[in-house]
Each structure stands twice: as C-alpha cells, then as structure tokens.
Amino acid sequence: MSKETTSFICNNCSYKTIKWLGCCPTCSNFDSFIEQKIDAKRQKIATSQTTQMPVSLISVSLVSKERISCGISEWDRVLGGGLVVGSLIVLTGDPGIGKSTLLLQVCNALAKNKSVLYVSTEESLEQIKQRAQRIGALSKDLFVYDTTSFANIHQVILEQKPDILIIDSIQNCYIESAETQPGSISQLRVMTFELMKIAKEKQITTIITSHITKEGIIAGPKTLEHMVDAVFYLQGEDQWDTRVLLAVKNRFGSLQELGFFRMETSGLLEVPNINEDIIDAHVPTPGSILVSTTESTRPLLFELQALVIETKLAFAQRIVSGVEHKQVTLIAAILEKYLKIRFSAHDIFFKVSGGFKTKSNAVDLGIALSLLSSYFQKPLPGKMLACGEIGLTGHVKSIAKLTPFMQGAHKFAIEHVVVAKTQNMQHAKIPTTEISHVVELLSFFN
Q1: Which residues are CB-neighbours of 143 under 8 A, at least 6 positions away?
Q2: What predicted TM-score, i.e. pTM, was given to this entire model?
Q3: Other C-beta atoms within 10 Å of 73: how many?
C-alpha cells in the first residue's frame, strides 16, 4: 500500500504548504487553503520509460501550422489570422459580457467546413438552441452536448473526434474520481492538462472559457495560463455598448491587435470602424484631444480627457485611468519644469474616453496638450491629432510607424496633426505643426 502525504493549496494563487494556514502569505486571502492528499508512489518519475531521445535542433523539420478562419474578421484579426490546428485557447471575461454568444457565432461559422462540438456546462440544450435561434446560429453540422462530468466529455471527444472543441466553461467541470472538491485548483490543472494532450495528439483545436476573479484576472492557478497556447479577454466598454477582444498571451500571433464588437439582440456584430464612433463622439472642449497609438497594425484613435483644478488639499490629487499613472505625473512634472506652470498645486483628473487603455509613449504629446488645454480653459481644434513622445529634457521625439497614423488621419478627415520636428513629414497630405520642445506648446493657447 502506497504512502499518502497531505498538503494544503491556496484556492486563489496555488501557494502550497504542508500545514493549514488561515491567511495565504502570497495573495493575503483568508480561508482559501484546501487539503490535498498526494499518493507518494505516483509522484515518482519512471526514468526507464523514456521513449524519445534528444535530437539536434538543426534536424528538426518545420511544418507550417494550418489556420482556420471563421470569416469573422475581428475575431480572426486578434487570433493572428484564425485558429491554429491543435491549439488550446482560453477565452475569459466578466459574467454576461458575451463569451458564450461570441463562441456560438464562431462555431456556427466554422461548422460550414469543420466538425464542431460545443460542450456547455452552464446551460441546457434548450437554452443553447434558444440563443442560437436568436442570433441566427442554427446549423445541422454544429453538435452540442451538456454535461459537467469531465469523464463524459473526455469519452465523447475521443468517440466523435471533432475538428473544433468548445467547453463553456471549464470551472463547472469536475472529475468524479478526484478526492478534491469540484472546481478546485488541482482539478482544473488536471483537466487542462488532459485537454492539452488531446489537442496536441489528436490535432483538435480546443477553446475553453474561464471565469475571472473580482480583481479582473483569469480564475484558477497561474499555471493554467502557462499551459495553454493563448489567452483572450472579452471586455465591455459602456459608452458605445462595445465589446473589446484582446490577447494577453498568443503563441501564434501578436498581442497588439484589438477586435471590436457591438452587442445587439441578434448577437455580437463586428465594428470594423470604431474610429468613426470615437470621432463622432468627440466634442472640442477644454482638456480633450485625439491621439493615436502604435499598439495595433491598424491606426486606432483615442480621446484623452484632462481636468486640472487648483487643489484645496495639502497634497494635490492624481486620479488617472486608461493610461499609466506615472506617465501623466511625469508629463505634468516636465511641463512644470519648463513652462513654469505649477501643476504640483493642482489636482489632475485624467482618463481615456470610452474605457480604453493604452501604454504607448506616442500619446505623451496628447497628454501634455490636454493638460495645458484644461489649465488654460481653451479648447483645441476638434479635428486635431497629436502624436509624439516627450523626453525628460522636454524635447519632443519622433515615433515609429507614423505612416499608418497619417493614412488613418486622412481617412477620418483629421484636419491637423501635431508631431515632433524630427519626424519626416515631407509627403504628408494633412497640415502639420512640428514641435521640438514642450515650450512651443504654449503657442496653441496664446
């Protein structure tokens, strides 16, 4: 009889200890440890069963991975051109954000050329059909299955051998023979590992949905994110009732792409020209300006909004959302140094309109102009776009990939662009103002 050992694992961050603790020392969650019994005999590694020997890297043959396009351009764009055969993908997001609706639309599109199995652990077959009727996703080649038993799911996968597998969601599955509670970290790890083996060995492209925590990150141990090939988030944006699909991990594509959808009664509709909505909603007011970023292969416009008021507290407030907090603080300090404006005595409230987020340094010039516009209470021209990075010396630096910006600016009727003086703008079709130092920004408010 093998000897069993007992360990305790945090249900939130997977921290392991040999004794129960009331508070996790890693994530500071209380009462999050779950007892787990481990068979010591199973932990031994059988070195005599090695069947594959190491090979020279040069001798490894490269086989291009086939991609499966579903025809939904915003989905395919974020994935890098479509699903990769044999990949394991996680889609996560807030409850009710539209994950199941989006996947049902993707399944319906893929079922035209591939065999698709949609496994629901949250809804009955009748509920799935009702949603499919509402969004027009009824297909005779789309097979659905409702169960929470992972053993049943595993058996159906091996018997049916679909090209595409969807499991919505993995948290509701459980392993009956396991000693731990259903939905525990150990069960999630085992199920994800089994799905990864099936995806690689049987070349079954697998998409699983996962819940998120109250902090907005994917639920379960971090090891799950390392095991899968890609992790995508579906986020909500309230101003235009838009859903944004973004990648936080993608072994087969870029992390810089964004996909936009609008929730309608007929499902999630693609929004290929989100810039038009942003420009239409932009009203020239003190503190607002349009910027563009290098975070995508297509030019994306954002509206920056700043509110600068004299503080009534001992220390000025800095409340920022949508961009890095330190980025706004740094730009304010640079302006105070070279323009002699006491931003340190003013509260600064700053945001990216629409709930978008950006980490690009290309918005530095826009941040500076929006702060100055709010401080002087003078609006900037409504169709003006600012692109440039500001150094600690106050000099404005050029940015890479400005050509897509200018193409996008011309397409959306941008009337004026503010860039660095070192930027090559010889062939620009739009009037430009070239800035070499932040001191020159005062000319906009004289």
Answers
A1: 115, 116, 117, 118, 160, 162
A2: 0.72
A3: 12
**Distance of alpha carbon 161 from alpha carbon 366, whole angstroms:** 53
Which two tokens mark 94? 């807030």
Of 236, 237, 280, 241, the residue nearest 262 (C-alpha): 241
Tens digit of each residue's pLDDT (9 = 90 or more) over 368-406: 999 999 999 999 887 888 889 999 999 999 887 777 667
Residue-wise pLDDT tens digits, 227-266:
899 999 888 765 556 888 888 889 988 887 888 898 888 8
Beta carbons within 8 Å of 179's beta carbon, 6+ residues apart: 36, 37
Which string of DSSP letters, residue by residue, matches 376-413? HT-PPPTTEEE--EE-TTSBEE--S-HHHHHHHHHHTT
Q: Are 171 and 177 in contact (CB under 8 A)?
A: no
User: The dihedral of CA 79, 80, 85, 88: what is its sign?
Assistant: negative
The pair of structure tokens assigned to 60 is 């490894």
Residue type, 365: L
Max distance between CA atoms of the chain, in angstroms, equals 87
The sign of the torsion formed by the CA atoms of 209, 215, 219, 224 equals positive
